[in-house]
Amino acid sequence: MKVLTVDTEVNPEHPLGGASVPKRPVPRLPGREPELSRLTSLFPAALGGRAASAVLVGEFGMGKTATLHAAAALAADAGFTVAIATGSRLESHLAGGVARQLADALAVPGTPRPPTGDLCGPAGESEALDLFFRIVREATGRGPLFLGIDNVHLADAWSMRCLAYIRHRVLDLPVLIVLTSLIGHPPHNEVALLEMAGCTPATITLNGLGDAGAAEILGLAPGELATACREATGGNPYLLQALRPRLLPGADPHELGSSLIGQVLHTRMQEFPHAPAILHAAAILGEDADFDLLARLAGVDELDALQAIDTMVRLHVLSNSDRPALTYSFARNSVLKDMPRTTRAVNHARAAKLLAETGAPPERVAAHLLEATSIRIPWGVDVLRLSARNAVFSGRPEPAAAYLRRALEERLTSGARVAVLLQLAHAEFQLDPPAAAMRVREAVDTVGNRETAAFIATAMLLSLCGGQDARLAISAAGQIAARLDAGGPDAVWPLLCMTYLAEAGSRLGPPPEFRDFEEQWAPLTDPAAQRSRSALLALDAVRSGESAQEAVGHFADALSLTAAPPRAGDSATRSPREQVGGDGDLFEQHYFFTLATAVLADEPAHIDRLCRVLDVEREPWDVHVPHGALPTLARGIALQASGDLQRASVHFESLLRRFDERGGTTTCPVGVLCAAKLVECWVDLGRFEAATSLLDRMDFVASQGLFTHTYLLYARGRLRVATGYTRFGFEDLLSCGRRLAHHGMRFPGFVPWRAHAARAALALGQADDAVRLAEEDITASARWGAPRPLGTALTTLGLVREDDEAERALNKAITTLRSSPARLQLATALTELGTLHARHGQSEKAIETLRQAVELSEHCGARPLARRAAEELRSARRALTPAKDNEHGLTRQENRIAVMAAQGLTNREIATALHLTRRTVELHLSGAYRKLGIPGRAELGGALAKSHRADAR
């Protein structure tokens, strides 16, 4: 074995006499000052004649040897005689090799050395051990002794026994023993590490360097790059040195590796059974490296794999976790760089297959498919497309584009290639719009099968939310429709229909006229075209606001024509469209879904049918929309329309949490609709703080689509009015109405903004605006003809009219609303009518009406309305109580008005002073005349005076 010693020269001026000092200065070890300090703290004990020892442990490359030699140099400078031996893997079978190194280093020049066999046993075992001890003891007679054994875990068995033999025999000698060992290295021999360390050792663990130490080794200034390098290598000095020449400008340290380091790691693992195979499998799997996958990819029996993993974890080659991956990214990259390209690609393909079989997330499978270049993996195309879809909608277009480019490397059918190209265009559109346009043209040129191409374009329209993405989808669909035009209207109608819907929902202005559009494609024979025609006729009726009966009829036809969801196992006999969930796609389109639910909310049978159509097994097209979200939202809207606010809010809240998980609450139109509906529901429930908090999360700037922004404005307007910010709420509601008019939306039941705007105008003292809004609402609702909007408009009219007109409007509103499920609107109308009766002095009527209003509003959960109705009810009951200062039973209001009339005030003056209508004043005076037994106002003063005198007696 090679003998390692520190060259010394005598320093006659040293206080210990003939001590030695190093000829060369102690090398600087960045970041190892604490460890060297601990070692030098042991010097005084040994210099004072008492043995000391230390064990220096660390993983491969942590600088154990360098630290040992630096400590030896410091020891020599302090007066120690230094002897260092090194264990070697290739010489561990040679008996006495390390002991011979130490003996040779301690020999006095010019004196005869003991024969080699004398230290190698076991012929004269006790004599050999005693000889080694005498050599050490004689060396201490010449001065303090520093014994360093590097890589003691690789020492031969006999040398280990020699070290263990002197352990208790040097306690009173000036000896410092320092051993270095690879952390976690399994013992190969009969002697334990601590048995060789002499007295109770100081255990010093070399950990990774910090940022400052890493920066010094790399020659960098402290900063983000040095930190990234330290993270990639764990601060391991050897790995940092290997990383340094590869650290070119712009390089990411986490992506760098060295094939030389990979070879070294592979070689060092050779001594442990199955460790090389596990090492390669761990490098391939990365963060996916759980036990089962490691064993299967390595092709190793589970028990053997467990033993290999245990050893590698103890050596810090693998992390001590549920997924024992390689400890540092630089080490993993190095092992991968050492693999031949084909080997690496095949292993990644195998890893992808294993992960797919275990149900791993698509993105994890796709990560391995990306690395499996030149390997044909047909089944991976669907995984790559799904991963790309998720990446785009989570704001990561770069990996999405990479997934899809990899998918294009497979042998694809014409239809599959069109689908992948269009999806790639969407991803590239966010990075390079001109390149995306080229992808669309390439996809159009690839169109082969008409039905497949139309289906793919329809899927693209359904999967993109809105804004610029929707414009890209509309452009692509239009080009494909033009390509398919030669096949006649039946071939292209469904695609044109979906394109029309997408354009209508994404435009900032009025959509194209549907009736002109429809005339170009008649007559229609295909069932899907018939369904589309009925659906779009319903949409046109809604936009025109002409006839609720016509709109509901067309919706019903579309629902009755919609095919049932597919059955499992029948994909071979179904078209591409049928294979993904029947013919319910129209109702999944955001624009269409929103209008359909707004119209059908008061139609229980139709809303149930709609939910069944939407309740398909597959995931929705839009990745932001959770599975089952659309039927849940539709039922919530129906519950809200029926006045069941508590159950509706439960539907909306549970759904909103799922949108939050997918990041779609503020971006996806369906998520925004759900949030706006929940705010509206909370306003009626009186949960103003929760509604405010939710609206604060919404992006009113980004949500510029017809429904997203309009619904948000309406919900915010209602909240502001309800919480006292009437002027701001009034402006929101007017803005909501302007947007609907700009889009040509005349359907009054979409959002009843006029009803709430009229109330706000009254509160602001703008009576003329209130009257105008109420009259416009009556006109629009009467034209539409549905009970809910008409009853709501009549209630608003009752607020702005006076006396008999107001009462007739409110009575008609109640009659109309009783024929609909709109219980909350009915409770509102009852409250307004009861309040009007109370103002008119008709307390008996008021009490009965308000009692119904309280019961109904409480049943709905509408706490603000219930409180108001209850307050009006208490006031009406108090008004029935006779005034205590007259004998004729005048109510307090009657007595007050009669006194004011007796004082000479006119009915107009009394009405103004008491904030009543003149008709109300007249009614109260008529009641007073009847109770006082007088014909009119002329006798009023005398009758009141007589009553007061009678009370005085």
From TrEMBL:
Residues of the HTH luxR-type domain: 883-949
A single MF term (Gene Ontology): ATP binding
SMART domains attached to this UniProt entry: HTH_LUXR (SM00421), TPR (SM00028)
Keyword Nucleus: no
GO terms, biological process: regulation of DNA-templated transcription
Entry-linked InterPro entries: AAA_16 (IPR041664), P-loop_NTPase (IPR027417), Sig_transdc_resp-reg_C-effctor (IPR016032), TPR-like_helical_dom_sf (IPR011990), TPR_rpt (IPR019734), Tscrpt_reg_LuxR_C (IPR000792), WH-like_DNA-bd_sf (IPR036388)
Keywords: ATP-binding, Nucleotide-binding, TPR repeat
Keyword set includes Nucleotide-binding: yes
Disordered, as annotated region: 1-32
TPR repeats, residue ranges: 827-860
GO cellular component: cytoplasm
PANTHER family noted in UniProt: TESTICULAR SOLUBLE ADENYLYL CYCLASE (PTHR16305), TRANSCRIPTIONAL ACTIVATOR DOMAIN (PTHR16305:SF35)
Name this polypeptide is given: Regulatory protein, luxR family
Originating species: Amycolatopsis australiensis
Native organism taxonomy: Bacteria, Bacillati, Actinomycetota, Actinomycetes, Pseudonocardiales
